[in-house]
């Protein structure tokens, strides 16, 4: 729990459960947080726990606490990288004020409907935060069904509606099965849904984005695509899988998830490059992407940098900027993890996260301000409290 002169390490209470079943995991989380006065609880839940059972059981044990979160492709725990667990973050009521809204039926989601929901949420948020003084500032967390293929539409609606409130988040995972992922709201688990949480705090914070790629001179143009389903059929007027393999120097017979993790492509937006990851090769030789694509889009082959060095330098820069960082809330692409594992750097990355208190989950995609990206670590660095709560 928060202390009068404490930090985010006290203001955000992190606990973890690794048990045999969802009821036992709910018991463990509720037991560890029984004495905390929480504005909300955010849970990142491995798909080994049946999500509807887990969230119902946890909500029945903590009926007065709003609970949000999602299923994962891996957890970022107090001990570093983890799997088959539940990581829970309790946001203390002394330091955080929140308001949240679910977004349902994402398969038929319209931007105008999203804007309406965001307007309602902002109005509620304004009422709840009207007592806050000028030292408070706001950010948003967004959790989206990672199988919905609608992240860009959701981000467009939110970005156009929230003004100067920045948003970060992640697309829910399902391990490496890519079958069904869930988000949590109101004591229930939903597919084809998202939840947006607005948060106001007196604690200093900074949003961040980190990947370990740089552009090369090799380009590919999307010449035929199924835009609705994120499928690229042709690159440079050649079958997509064959042309991708040629461009990155792989045999098309070797294309698999690990190949795509090691060889993402980049898209340039507003002078910066963002990673676009491939999920799989389809039987017809087309490529299924994790992000939105379009005909005429230019894809740049990426070159890898040292992921440990890049990530370490970012965490250091954020710490220096804030004076001191008590916690990094992180959303990390599962393909980033696979790439690091292939390079036999798992131990180093996990230790880096443990040492810097990077807490969160591994995703099917990451949200950063107005963008939906892949193979990236996004999140928010929380600094220490400078004033005691009144």
Automatic annotation (TrEMBL):
Q: Which SMART domains match?
A: FIST (SM00897), FIST_C (SM01204)
Q: Which residues form the FIST domain?
A: 37-239
Entries under Pfam families matching the protein = FIST, FIST_C
Q: Which InterPro entries match?
A: FIST_C (IPR019494), FIST_domain_N (IPR013702)
Q: Which residues cross the membrane?
A: none
Domain FIST C-domain: residue ranges: 240-370
Q: What is this protein called?
A: FIST N-terminal domain-containing protein
Q: Which organism is it from?
A: Bradyrhizobium brasilense
